[in-house]
Amino acid sequence: MGDIVKVLFERRWGAPVTVSGGSGPGTQITGPAEALSYFRGWSHQKTVLYEAAVLTCREAVLGQAPLRRSRELFVAACKRAC
After folding, report:
1. pLDDT below 70 — which residues of the chain?
2. Alpha-carbon distances, residue 60 vs 24, 42, 56, 69, 76 (angstroms)
3. Which of 1, 42, 50, 57 sits most deeply, having the most CB atoms within 10 A of its CB?
């Protein structure tokens, strides 16, 4: 058998991020797992900042990166895409 990897899907940021994509009320993203789901539908240019955010969110759900950093990069990638 291989190694067991613990995935922490329940990890949440201290404050959610609301991402608006038009005239609707926006989408609340509460942690790195939700951010990764959001990134799956990403229709914007996949910049270096986007790649860093995805990587850090993956690391955060594995407990290998700080939640704060995953949130910062998620927000930065979204702002960059606007």
Report:
1. 1, 22-23
2. 29, 19, 6, 9, 16
3. 57
